Predict the structure of AB hydrolase-1 domain-containing protein.
Amino acid sequence: MARFLLIHGSCHAAWCWDATIAALKALGHEATAIDLPAHGDGTPPEAVTLADYADAILGALDEPALVVGHSMAGVPLTLAAESAPERFERLVYLCAYLPGDGDSVGTLRRAQDSQPLLPAIRRERGSPVFGFDPELGRQIFYNDCSDAVAEAAIARLCPEPIAPQEERVTLHGKAQALPRSYILCSRDGAIPPEFQRRMAGALPLADLHERDWSHSPFLSDPEGLAALLDKIAGATPAQTV
């Protein structure tokens, strides 16, 4: 049995993991998900920092766990692990931004050779948040989901604070020294698969797991995602505390 903490990406919240949590529990694991600040908890988005995201992750870790970060959550996940590596059994990056020292979500996105998100981003002048055009959400996030699942997810997307995505992380090797896995989604319409592969190059090849999934396998194939996480957990020695 393993413990999992699941962290959502931009404009999503803990709800996106419901089916995956059920699938992980069916396999005998403990699993939970959290809302990051300003993603449904009432926190004013203009007040949120990247450190707040990292603190929320750490606050949810009563015991060491395998922590899965999706998309932009790869950055606060790494920052949290840098601050308290003893709380993490493994970092799992699910088609996520995997930062090095000095990186941010914004710098990593701009380093991509292609920018599939840009046409879909919607922001009012001066607003501290952005969102995505619902007409483009299907092809970007949910291109292998059923119509019903995609439509329900698009209806639940929330505004995303901008400032934390431009904050850079300072890393001294503590997060990088932890066991880490990368799940590359080859049908991803948000973060180009070739860029995912470039980021995952920092990890041993055995810790790269490529699947024919969109950006949101927690919705399109939660049982398959749970099975892969079960496999990853089996390769992770349990910590004693």
User: Anything to note?
Assistant: Strands lie at 3-7, 30-34, 65-70, 88-94, 121-122, 129-132, 160-161, 180-185, 208-211.
